[in-house]
Amino acid sequence: MAPMDELKAQIRGVFKQGEYRYRVSGEELTIFTRQLATMLGSGIPLHQALTYFGETSEGDLPDIITQVAMDVSSGHTFSNAMRRFPTIFSTVYIALANMGEQSGQIVTAYKRLADLLERQTNMRKRVVSALTYPLVLLVVSSAAIAGFIYFVLPMMTPMFENSGVALPLPTRILLSLRTVVPIVTVALFVLLAGSWLGKPWIKAYFRNNPEKLRLLHSFWFYIPVVSGIYSKLSTARVLYSMSTMLDSGLTMTSTLKQAAAAAGNEFVAYRLDQATERIMEGASLGEALGIYSVFPSGAIQMLTVGEEAANLTEMVKHVADLYDTEVELALNDIASVLEPAIMVVMGCVVGFIVLSAVLPTVQLIQNL
Description:
There is one protein chain. The protein has helices at 3-14, 26-41, 46-56, 60-73, 78-82, 91-103, 106-162, 169-197, 199-208, 210-218, 226-247, 252-262, 266-280, 285-291, 297-308, 312-366. By secondary structure, the chain is mainly alpha-helical.
């Protein structure tokens, strides 16, 4: 799709028209997958299960499932019918569904897929919950400070100016923010709006220059503090996907290719693709992952042990659980540090504001 056509579709999506109108959360997809696995396990035919969900649920997902059910009834496989909605169903989702259809174990495949989505949803919730309180504290404090600058301070300024008292430096700095902040806010709004409108051209640029996108995605691995958590988070996500696919019967090379698409980071995906090529040339899993540093060294060592012991699937799941736990502990540590840090920063800001308001008053009293 040309960038201009994609922009038009994007704008139509805002008004609930066209292919961009659908909004489905990860939690909604997880609930649907679990319900589908339960219905299929109870002996309900696939088309009937899809139709039931489409008729009894609300939101965009039931509308999508209804269209998928119509395609299934006309002879398409479920996995092929889902390919019409690539923004809703990931490549891993479709691959596992296809694997279940080919092996005749679609119930087992969907139970494992539901487990995978639940892990990913819980991981996402933990990240959000760890950062919610510090962000709320920051927003509320910023709103209080803005209220003082724009409503309280302007009422005090004329009194000082009429008395002929020169405003001290902290007060002048605070008053200058009344001009600077709106300019920065407008510039930020224009930047965000421009990024949204220019998204089709940005995507086209990165499609034509994949090395630029890999470079952009690699920055997460070089940011202090964030890099360690992001690396563990990425490792847990990829390994959970690998564990589910290996347990469903996919080969190692197919698993790595699908996991690369599920990584959510082109830098990690590229390294996984390179490691897959090395495995196809005859290298072992541990050797290939080690050459391209796909995962942290500790994870690679444990995967190597699992490969040598012919217990790779269980080891992949074990390593994924291990790094999932480490991510949760790291997030809790960051949250416990962020809260007092934000309190200290806000205390300094409030102290500066109080000083800016008190100093002119002291000078005014001294000149009386």
